[in-house]
Amino acid sequence: MKIVSRNEELLRDALSCVPQPSSRTSLTSCNKLIRFEDISAAAFKIQCGVQKTPCMYSRLSKQYGMDIYLKKEFLQYTGSVKERGVLYLLMSLPQEQQRKGVIVASDSNFSMAVAYHASELHIPVFVIVSTSTAPARVKMCREYGAMVISYGTTAKDSQVHARRLAQENGYLYLEEEDSAVYLSGLGTVGLEMYEQVPKLDAVIFPAGGHCGLLAGSAAALKHLNPHISVIGVESESFPVLQQSLKAGHPTDDQACNNHHFYGDVSGVCFGSNSLQLTGKLVDKVVAVREEDILISMLRLLEYERATVDAEGAIALAALVAGKLPELKGKRVAVVICSGNLELHLLQQCIARALTLDNRVCRFSLVISDCPGDMSKLLEILAREEARVLDIKQERTFVTSELFTVKVICTVETRDKIHTAQLRNALLERYPTTAWTER
């Protein structure tokens, strides 16, 4: 956690020692960064303020050949695991600072967690957002109890304004980073999973630019059982964690995508504590494609009735993409950490995922513009059990024979095999059928 105020000593890391470079992975040296006792203390202190979310056996287990348990952190009040670290941080503030208040400058899950828990603790809280922030996010922060101020057209504008307000009024400016206090709160996820699922073989976490959850939970899990494999998952579009581990320090990835779909997955906000813990305790970091994340979101919606965002789905995406074949037959826990997907994105994501999963397809063909020809096409679709989503006819600009009509049809199928069967049936009757590739 990065703290900026007139008195930066108001909140110090729970542990201040600097890690020494070592060629060996040592749990003792890692505990200099964050101790298991710190995580246990955090779990005790926040137990009345956050949900002990379920870690449930998933019906996806049979599909992927392993026992999958989903840690449903999206069930937290604000829909995000960030509540754990935020609550522990706010409870650790001196009473004088709690009286003065805190201020944040973003529309992220972190800011929403600060807005809610600060209000619950009767701490004055201010959220500064840019004018381009989604109205739903602004409304949510206000409903949580924060004073929300729109300022500037960019995130940088709102951050500068928030820092100025903090300096002038004595507020504590909070920016998500990786203090031991914050990591200890996030690490309680690992503690809970170990208690909820006996004999775990592996745990999969989201990583990317925000790897505090991965680092903190790894500290808890490796202390309890060093044989549990801890795996992080990030996006191929911006593999910032892998690049930083290779470089030995946090790096800026110029390819980071600012699209709201990625949310907290993109960008770099971890510091040396998170990176050191990840390098020493995490067994593997893999990258997945955007397509895998979308299909993972679809699987969670269909099998678990869980509506999650990219950050929430990215850990499962590693299994969807077949990136971890060594886990076949193992007992695996997957953290579903966030469910704050904006409504206008939900429809786009699901529609795109169905196409990527070969469940929605489009084709075009030319038929005679005579009575009964269209009904014959519909009969084939009905016989093949394809659900027609949309059908259009083009007569004016058809370049083939006169008195023909071009039909463009979008249909829904069960799966890839069903799509192939439909395609063969159409080609048999209409050899010129053109299939629109996804």
From TrEMBL:
Coiled coil: none
Domain ACT: 362-438
Molecular function terms, GO-annotated: L-serine ammonia-lyase activity; threonine deaminase activity
Pfam family, one: PALP
Record carries keyword Lyase: yes
InterPro entries, per database record: ACT_dom, ACT_ThrD-II-like, Ser/Thr_Dehydratase, TrpB-like_PALP, TrpB-like_PALP_sf
Cofactors that this protein relies on: pyridoxal 5'-phosphate
An annotated GO BP: isoleucine biosynthetic process
Keywords: Lyase, Pyridoxal phosphate
Protein name (record): L-serine deaminase
Organism: Poecile atricapillus (Black-capped chickadee)
Gene name of the encoded protein: Srr
